[in-house]
From TrEMBL:
GO terms for molecular function: glycosyltransferase activity. CDD domains: GT4_GT28_WabH-like. It comes from Hymenobacter nivis. Residues 19-183 form the Glycosyltransferase subfamily 4-like N-terminal domain. This is Glycosyltransferase subfamily 4-like N-terminal domain-containing protein. Signal peptide: none annotated. Pfam families: Glyco_trans_1_4, Glyco_transf_4.
Amino acid sequence: MSMVFSNKILLLIPNLGLGGAQRVFHDHSVELAKHYAITEAVFNLEGGDLYPSGNPVVSLDVSGGGGPLDKLQNFQRRVSGLRQLRERLRPAIVISHLEGADYVNLLSGGPGKTILCVHGSKLHDANIRGPVGWLRKKVLIPMLYRRAARIVTVSTGIREELVRGMGLPAHKIQVINNFFDVELIRQQADALVPAPFAELANQGPVLVTSGRLSREKNLLALLDVFQQVRRQLPTCRLLIIGQGEEYLAMLARCQALGLAVYTSEQAPAEASQAAVLFAGFQANPHAFIAKATLFVLPSLNEGFPMALGEAMVCGLPVVAADCPTGPREILSPATPEPAQPLRHAETAPYGVLLPVISNIATYAADVTTWSQTLTTLLLNPIEQDRLREQARHRMNDFSRQHIAGQWLRLVEEVRQS
């Protein structure tokens, strides 16, 4: 007599607000719903649902924040709430995204095997620090993550961290890169953008970056780089797409560097004198990105940088910090991570890799390396065209169909094991 396996899958993430992990969560939800009955669960909906999938969403209605006791009580409520939801839905699998959700997934128990999707570096994330960071890296992750049926990392570098750095069993960990809806992104890239952004490309070269304005994106260092670029190319502009906690610090840095700013609160006519333009959150960032000359990613660390890949789909030449993890895997997949941090510009097969601007001792030299590389590339349309074509070609390796197929095979293997 054949066994009957549940067709229900529960997806868990802390929130559905702005972020790369949330976008990937949405993509997985949409794809898996073509084959399974999907329910999404979140700790709370305080940040809204910025990437709605159309699948049912259940909120555990547990807020975050507060002191240590509040956080402990909230964690216990999340674990209890997820356990009740699992008992009610009786899913075959519970897939969690982001570390907070992973702990709740692993400790809640109840029906459903656990799969964890790890989006970012654990060893290089500056937010994982102090006594709590030590506890997470040395105790919680090594002890708890091995309870999962499977662990998926979005890059090879993260898998190596978990296996070699944290001692997790290699046979449980599989790399599945994020996918890009190439056709949709290219359609969105052709959309019109409002003034004053539509006119930018006609006024000189444009550098663009996109993503959450957070510390790990290292955007304050990018402003230092851009000031030097402007000395050589006074008509160059920097377009920043996104919102986040570093916004006010970035405005202050622009003022200190003498870089005139345009924000969405100003009248469009005021943009003509601005060097740095803040576009804020955009539902369709691809239309803005496609109007630029070069995409830049100065991050301190990544997981598998979606914004970098999306810019490549849009046909932009890309320049990225050789940070852990993801940029090298995308831009130079055949080369290993260097033994020593990169201190020069490396022209990779699909873009340009540059030093991570974080070391105080090399900060000035790294900023100069970035500014010289960007200036040279902005003045070389032939090289831009070559990198543009290479970028488009590379992104075919991350198609929705190819990557979604890997997830479906994994889910079915775990479901029937």
